[in-house]
Every structure is written in C-alpha cells, then in structure tokens.
Write a structure and sequence with these properties.
By secondary structure, this protein is mostly helical. It has helices at 15-38, 42-53, 59-66, 70-82, 104-125, 130-151; strands at residues 86-90, 98-102. The chain has one domain (11-151): Winged helix-like DNA-binding domain superfamily/Winged helix DNA-binding domain (Arc Repressor Mutant, subunit A, Orthogonal Bundle). Strands 1-2 form a two-stranded antiparallel ribbon.
Length: 153
C-alpha cells in the first residue's frame, strides 16, 4: 500500500537523529575554536550569545531561549560570573529572579567569537545556492513551528 507506514526504524535515515547529528557536528566545530581560545563550553557560549543579544534575561529565560537544561545553564552562569564574563543583579520586586548582563570582559569575548561563528556558518553554507539557503531556512522554520505545535499541551 502506498500510504502504509514502514515500521522499520533505520536510525541513520530518521530525521530527528539526523538533525541531532547535524546540530552536534556543527556546534562542535565552533566549540573547538571558543574552547581553545577562551576556555568556553557550548552552554557558556550560548549564555554569552543570548545575554549579548538580550541583556537583562534571567537564567530561566536563557534556558528557555537556548533549549538547554536549567542545570547546564545554571552551571554555565555560575562559571561565567566567576570568570567575570557575566554580571548578575537581582530584581527589586522578586529577589529570586536574577538579571544577567555581559560584563566588559564578556562583551569582549562575545565580540570576538560572534564573527568566528558567522564565518563558520558561511563556510558551512558554502556550495549552497541562495535558493537552497532560502529553502533550508523555510523548511527549518516550518519544522520548528510544527514541533512546537505537536509539543504544546
């Protein structure tokens, strides 16, 4: 039958697995650069990138935006504070809510790593036409929207 679903799972053809492998491979490429140069882990760089773009977020909001575990974000924030790359204040209305901003050192790291990340992205996309890149972006957005729809209660 044409509409019958094949029940054999071939992992290397399974879209979620392929996306995870792609994500891990690409993240690892740039991670080598910022680990070697700045001693940053992937979660630490993601915190710096998100707080650099959206200053004043809480650690919980950073976790939501990065889709990383709250514990991983908490560890990254703690390490970044100790390294003087992130500054944390507490909200006046709710002392439990921390407000994160980049320190001067954190901004310097952000401003050095961001161009490297963008260069890596361009290198990764090299060989794809503008039309293929547009299609990739459209498909990625649609898959993300569908995944969010499926996962919402």
């Amino acid at each position: 039958m044409e509409n019958e679903v094949d029940n054999e799972l071939i992992l290397e053809d399974f879209l979620p697995y392929r996306l995870a492998i792609l994500s891990h491979t690409v993240s690892s490429l740039i991670a080598r650069v910022y680990d070697k140069r700045f001693g940053l882990t992937i979660p630490e760089w993601r915190v710096i990138a998100i707080v650099g773009r959206f200053p004043g977020l809480s650690a919980v909001e950073v976790a939501e935006r990065t889709m990383l575990d709250k514990v991983a974000i908490s560890r990254a924030v703690t390490k970044l504070i100790k390294a003087n790359r992130i500054e944390r204040e507490f909200a006046d209305a709710d002392r439990r809510r921390s407000i994160l901003t980049l320190s001067e050192e954190g901004r310097k790291v952000h401003d050095e790593v961001a161009p490297l990340a963008l260069e890596m992205e361009q290198d990764l996309l090299h060989g794809l036409s503008d039309s293929q890149i547009d299609t990739l972006n459209t498909v990625t957005e649609r898959l993300l929207a569908r995944a969010r729809l499926i996962s919402s209660p």
